Amino acid sequence: MHDDTTLQIGFYQADRLESTADLLLDMSRHYNGANASSRETVHANLRDNILGADSGVQLVLACSADQVVGLACISLLYPAPKESAQLFMKELYVHSGWRNAGIGAALMRWIAAYAQHKGCSRFDWTVDADNTRALEFYRQLGASHVSDKLYFRFGVDALAALAGQG
Predict the structure, then answer these.
(1) What's the whole-number average pLDDT of the chain?
(2) Burial class, 77, CB count within 10 angstroms (exposed 0-12 / middle 13-18 / buried 19+)
(3) HSE-up of 8 (CA within 13 Å, CB side)?
(4) Which of 6, 64, 65, 154 could form a disulfide with 159 if both were Cys (CB 3.0 to 4.6 A apart)?
(5) What is the rounded distance in angstroms from the CA atom of residue 144 to the CA atom of residue 127?
(6) Strand, helix or coil at 100?
(7) What is the mean pLDDT of the segment spanning 37-51?
(8) How far apart are CA 69 and CA 27, in angstroms?
C-alpha cells in the first residue's frame, strides 16, 4: 500500500502525457494479458483518440509526485432530467501497484463534487456483472444498482451491418 497523502486529483495536463500513457499500458495489460497493446499503440491512442478533438471525454487523473496512479474518463451528457446534465464515467482505473490505497474512492469523490458543481442530476457508469470487487466497491460508496435500464451495443460486425443498411 502506498502513501496517498501527496495524491493530487484534477483534469489532464499536457505534462502528464507520458505518465498517462504508462497507466493506460498497465490497464491494457490488466484487461488483455498477453494480448495487451504495445506502449506505442497505447500512446498513439491516447494522443490521437482519447485526447483528440472528437473525443468528447475529459480525463481526470490521480497523481502521486510525477506518476499518474489512477484515472477516470468522464463526459457531461445532455439532455438529462429537469434540463440538467448527466455525468457519465466511461472508465475508472487505478494502477496495479497502487490498488487498495483509497485512490479509486478519492477519484469518485472528486468526480461527484465536479458533477454537483456542473449541476448534474446524476452520475452514471457501467460495470461488468462479474466484476465482484468493483460491484462491492461501488456499493460501499453508496451507489445504487439501476435495474430499470438495459444496456445495448452494436459490436464490430453488427455495426458494419447496420451502417451498410441504406
Answers:
(1) 94
(2) middle
(3) 11
(4) 154
(5) 12
(6) coil
(7) 97
(8) 11
User: Measured between alpha carbons, how far is 127 from 119 in angstroms, rounded to an integer?
Assistant: 24
Q: How far apart are CA 23 and CA 107, in angstroms?
A: 15
Please list, in sequence order, all residues whose beta carbon lies within 8 angstroms of the beta carbon of residue 78, skipping any fewer than 6 positions away. Answer: 85, 86
DSSP 37-98: PPHHHHHHHIIIIITSTT---EEEEEEETTEEEEEEEEEEEEEEGGGEEEEEEEEEEE-GGG
**Are 108 and 9 spatial neighbours (Cβ–Cβ below 8 Å)?**
no
* Residue bearing cell 457519465: 88
159: pLDDT strictly greater than 80: yes
Whether 69 and 95 have beta carbons less than 8 Å apart is answered as: yes
Residue owning grid cell 429537469: 82
Judged on CB neighbours under 10 Å (0-12, 13-18, 19+), 37 is: middle
Residue 51 grid cell: 485526447
Q: Which domains does the chain have, with CATH numbers?
A: 7-163 (3.40.630.30)
User: Nine-digit cell at 19?
Assistant: 505518465
Q: How many residues does the chain have?
A: 166
3-state secondary structure of 144: coil
